[in-house]
Amino acid sequence: NWVMADTGVVETLLRLIEKVDDGVDSLEVAASLGVDHQVIVGAVKSLQALGDIISAELRSSKHWELTEEGTEIAEQGSHEARVFSSIPLEGLAQSELMKLSFGKIGFSKAMSNKWIRVDKSHEGGPRIFKTVESIDDQVREKLLLVKKANTAQLEEKEKNELKKRKLLSEVTVKSYWISKGISFSTTITKQETELTPEMVANGSWKEKKFKPYNFEAMGVAPDCGHLHPLMKVRTQFRQIFLEMGFTEMPTNNFIESSFWNFDSLFQPQQHPARDQHDTFFLSDPALAHEFPQDYLERVKKVHSEGGFGSQGYKYDWKIEEAQKNILRTHTTAVSARMLYKLAQQKFTPVKYFSIDRVFRNETLDATHLAEFHQIEGVVADYGLTLGDLMGILHQFFTKLGITKLRFKPAYNPYTEPSMEVFSYHEGLKKWVEVGNSGVFRPEMLLPMGLPEDVSVIAWGLSLERPTMIKYGINNIRELVGHKVNLQMVYDSPICRLES
Amino acid sequence: MPTVGVKRDLLFKALGRTYTDEEFDELCFEFGLELDEITSEKEIISREQGDSKASGASDTILYKIDVPANRYDLLCLEGLVRGLQVFKNTLEAPRYRRVSPSSGEPQKLVITKETAAVRPHAVAAVLRNITFTQERYDSFIELQEKLHQNICRLRSLVAIGTHDLDTISGPFTYTAKPPGDISFKPLNQTKEYTATQLMSLYKTDSHLRHYLHIIEDKPVYPVIYDSNGIVLSMPPIINGDHSKITLKTKNVFIECTATDVTKAKIVLDMMVTMFSEYCSQPFTVEEAEVVYPDGKTYKYPELAYRKEKLSSEFINRKVGINESTEKIAQLLTRMCLLSQATGVGDEIEVEIPPTRSDIIHACDIMEDAAMAYGFNNIPRTTPRTYTVANQQFVPSLFLGHSCPLRQIVAHLSSLTTLCHHQVARTTLLPGLLKTIAANRKMPLPLKLFEISDVVLKDETKDVGARNSRRFCAVYYNKSPGFEVIHGLLDRTMQLLEVKSVRGDGYHIQAADDSTFFPGRCAEIFVRGKSVGRLGVLHPDVINRFELTMPCSALEMDIEPFL
């Protein structure tokens, strides 16, 4: 623990800072206290951990330092100076001089400085003599300047020459510029990190100082679950329907007969939607085997001959087509079953809804899968009008935050009138289709046995499209299916459709 | 929805005025059409085949207009213009008349009994003294194509053949022969082929190959001859070259062969009502006789006008408006349904012309009144329907796990190449494991659950199958975490108020299941009944899903709790 071990240094440092107006450099402090720079750095760090007692700004500077050889020279003189002083008046045999550690380098330097001469013809081998009385050891003096940090008195050229001789090196030093912090004080107390049960129990928290929190940091992520966006949006739609008094239909039957999916809805057997290219037919169980017989006969009649005020389609209606099992292409098949059931009792008005999967043999792309969720609303009552359908759609879409609606005439085999619902998109600055709607045809309702003056209005939309818009998802594969992006699931916010 | 491409300037010329794109779009919207795209031939070619191919193409602006699937009378420029002009009150709907030939007998088409095996019906008519221009001719050909694509169900229900009557001579015979016995020079070919040769010739034809299957497997093929043995057509594949229509053609013989006679009559009515406009006596069509094998004779085209009576109160009540009988009669007249108040109460007599085969019930008339009134002019009202809402039970199992929703796997006998799945899913586990495999970059542990329906065969249901709601959860981490999955089961049961006891509550007991690691699998019993399994997945299973960590899983039936 730095604070404990170096309290002395920390306190000394704080007193130094107290005395100056601006601040101190950590390197200078180390030099003046005669301690290693790292000791001061440690003191700075521990003070920083306590809050804003000091402010420390990291600085870096370059400076010159003596190498090992340079240090030796500064202490003992340059090699050539030492050679000079080794030579007595009577001279020295060259072989003797070369035995000295500095002899070889010092000899050539002293020679070029003309401090010494060699008498090669001397008796007993070459002998060295001084040529001058005294010398000026400039190298040593320059290095001494560097050692005393007076580098400024040296010229660049001189420094580079010494660097070349490996006597000097240039180093980068990091230091702190230390000044008073907002809560500067020369006395420091140890700060507690957290409140403990003991402090609460014995009241010692009153005397303690607490380490400040870093509010910039993120908290710890809670260990929680995440609902899929499609589920969140579905919940909102269910909520809207329930608020409007709609009852949820049981839609747990993905496999449906063509009879309930198409024939009961007055969709002719040659209709393109009943093609293999659009619908998934089942191979096992391939056929449905049970139908309400009376009702089936009425459906057959209205298709092939007409009746109930209709001309019919006038074609040869075949039970074999009606029996074919498929994956339902719309939840309207469920609505048909529910309305048939309703017709078997004394009629009471109903409002139904469902949100569940439907299946289409579509070309797959970024916005289409072979299955999607259909949202459907149905109202059956005496005397409902087209104006009522538009009114209820207005209420429904208002709850979704969509208030600007208009309606386009459209075609659908089982509704008449049929209307496409458009809303004005403020971002795109144009009308975009948001759903389909219509009044169920008498050829669908009357064979079921519903009273003649009962109208049934209905509308539908997909769950995926509003979800993709709401959560900004461009590729449906990221939303639905096993390639779902779990990070997107984790990150997606709650769903409020009206905002 | 069929899309009709028309040249903008030609359309405006025929409409007698010009519109801005926005104005025309608005008009379409009101009339139930959709101006889908504004383009040009050049732009289309450039988009489909590249800029280099488009260099010589026309810059003429084309409107691509989406037409409702039941409005065959709007599938060509002539029909669109007529519909819009009547709608805008600038034209009275024409009256279409069937007339006898000015001299001599009507053209006769005799059906032989052999056709019963392949394509038993035919209808026919003659357009006299017609004047084609390039544009009219193109539209004439294009309408046949649009009808073939839509009401004719790719020629399977009805096929249209049009001929230069001056190159052939009646009576005509519609018969069926073995393909080897039929030989003629087909449209735009230079030599004769037998029907057998033609079928192989057209195997590679990008257009015609789609129709071959309609007759390919039949022992006999349909064929129409003139009195000199010249082949008019081999429906529904190709016409003969001999009788082909040119810009110079003055008299047109139209035949439609069919498996559905109702649709054949509609198709013939559409062809003649649209193009009789260009006859020397506009909107008249010369009749033709069709003789069936039993000797019965029919005159075509039917061009039937049907009268319906309804009350203005009915329309007001269904639409939610309050208009006078006269006003409603005017609205209907603007939809090509000539109407007038009969003077008996609020009764209106509505005449449905042969062009409006989509009008089959009073509700269709009501819709047209609403369209002419303008859907967006109808006051929006709130129904007074009083109901109490109920919901299906959805168990709220918020257990601290992610819920990826996954597609049900379905599939079946469909023949398309789009199908990747062969069966409806019967278990949820593979989907969750695939989800993990697709999200391997996510930090561990991964804890996923799904509550969804699977499909099971069930003889007691009318369709032979039923949905069953499942709950599946997986835990994927460096250690298998059986205790985590087990704890999830305990918590689920606690929320569902099922106690941990044998008999009345729930318990688990060791089980063998090749999906799980030996000795690490248990069966879940609720009130004595097995509802599912949990355990540590077998390493082979983990590997096959391209996963690398141990994994424990739970899957159970939750139907008993719904």
TrEMBL record, chain A:
Lineage: superkingdom: Eukaryota
Claim: Aminoacyl-tRNA synthetase is one of the keywords in the record: yes
Record PROSITE patterns: AA_TRNA_LIGASE_II (PS50862)
Sorted UniProt keywords: Acetylation, Aminoacyl-tRNA synthetase, ATP-binding, Cytoplasm, Ligase, Magnesium, Metal-binding, Nucleotide-binding, Phosphoprotein, Protein biosynthesis
Main location as per UniProt: cytoplasm
Molecular function, one GO term: ATP binding
Listed GO CC annotations: cytosol; phenylalanine-tRNA ligase complex
Enzyme Commission (EC) number: 6.1.1.20
Subcellular location field: Cytoplasm
EC class (word): ligase
Pfam families assigned to the protein according to its UniProt record, in alphabetical order: PheRS_DBD1, PheRS_DBD2, PheRS_DBD3, tRNA-synt_2d
One GO term (biological process): phenylalanyl-tRNA aminoacylation
SUPFAM superfamilies per UniProt: Class II aaRS and biotin synthetases (SSF55681)
Ranges of residues in domain Aminoacyl-transfer RNA synthetases class-II family profile: 232-493
InterPro entries to which the protein is assigned, alphabetical: aa-tRNA-synth_II, aa-tRNA-synth_II/BPL/LPL, Phe-tRNA-synth_IIc_asu, Phenylalanyl-tRNA_Synthase, PheRS_DBD1, PheRS_DBD2, PheRS_DBD3
Family per similarity comment: Belongs to the class-II aminoacyl-tRNA synthetase family. Phe-tRNA synthetase alpha subunit type 2 subfamily.
Subunit organization: Heterotetramer; dimer of two heterodimers formed by FARSA and FARSB.
Protein name (record): Phenylalanine--tRNA ligase alpha subunit
Gene behind the chain: farsa
UniProtKB/TrEMBL annotation, chain B:
Species of provenance: Dicentrarchus labrax (European seabass)
EC number(s) on file: 6.1.1.20
Family listed: Belongs to the phenylalanyl-tRNA synthetase beta subunit family. Type 2 subfamily.
Domain B5: 303-380
Top EC class for this record: ligase
Name listed for the protein in its UniProt record: Phenylalanine--tRNA ligase beta subunit
Cofactor(s) this protein cannot do without: Mg(2+)
PROSITE patterns cross-referenced by the UniProt entry: B5
Gene3D superfamilies found in the cross-reference section: 3.30.56.10, Bira Bifunctional Protein, Domain 2 (3.30.930.10), Phenylalanyl-trna Synthetase, Chain B, domain 3 (3.50.40.10)
Protein localization: Cytoplasm
Species classification: Eukaryota, Metazoa, Chordata, Craniata, Vertebrata
